[in-house]
Amino acid sequence: MTRNFLGDTAVLLARSMRHVSRSVDTVITTAIMPVAMMLMFVYVFGGAIDTGTDSYVNYLLPGILLITVASGIAYTAFRLFADIKSGIFERFQSMPTARSSLLWAHVLTSLAANLISLAIVVLVALLMGFRSTAPVSAWLAVTGILLLFTLALTWVAVIPGLKAKTAEGASAFSYPLIFLPFLSSAFVPTTTMPGPVRAFAEHQPVTSIVNAIRALFTQQPVGADIWIALAWCVGILVVAYLLAMNAYRRKIA
């Protein structure tokens, strides 16, 4: 059973990645908005924002990386919705394939596509002056956090991908996720925010994730932020996975 699942997932992943390779513009488009946002905040607003650091792009990058992921998973929901509408689910159900392999193929495709988009954003940030003396281990830790965050949000994306009635509805869910970093420590310190906004910002997942990544990049003590960030990511992942699988079972019943 496990061998069949892994083999079926590998075949379907190859199929999904071929679709992505034929529409590279989707990966580039995913990176364009975060890059444009980074350019605007650094070169237009950066001089007026006091973060207590010498380089605003260094402060800003962790939040931009999360926005990149939130933007990228919208395409996951769209691709899944397109497969459902094309009847591919029904065709695979009539074949001796593992039922969840199609979902996992989309999830793994999302991880690969988002990694490419994140690499593009980091490259642009380096051209804009981003610098980090963090060791390889810190970069690997940042990559791990981003992969876990991407995996969690991808399973969130699977739910509207399965339930949406239109293509627009499948991807529209990502807008609140893209907006969430604005109510966090991604762009300005939470200490500058008014009371109620500050309380929300300091107790939502993006702030702890951003703070942990920022500390790793700057070789500062991560404190409890990294454990809170991991707890948020794992919690979202578990809940989203259970809801997505329940929606999938209802869809193919």
From TrEMBL:
Regions annotated as coiled coil: none
Record domain ABC transmembrane type-2: where: 25-251
Family: Belongs to the ABC-2 integral membrane protein family.
Keywords: Antibiotic resistance, Cell membrane, Membrane, Transmembrane, Transmembrane helix, Transport
The protein's name in its UniProt record: Transport permease protein
Domain of life: Bacteria
Spans traversing the lipid bilayer: 24-45, 57-81, 102-130, 136-158, 170-188, 226-244
Location(s), subcellular: Cell membrane; Membrane
Membrane topology annotation: Multi-pass membrane protein
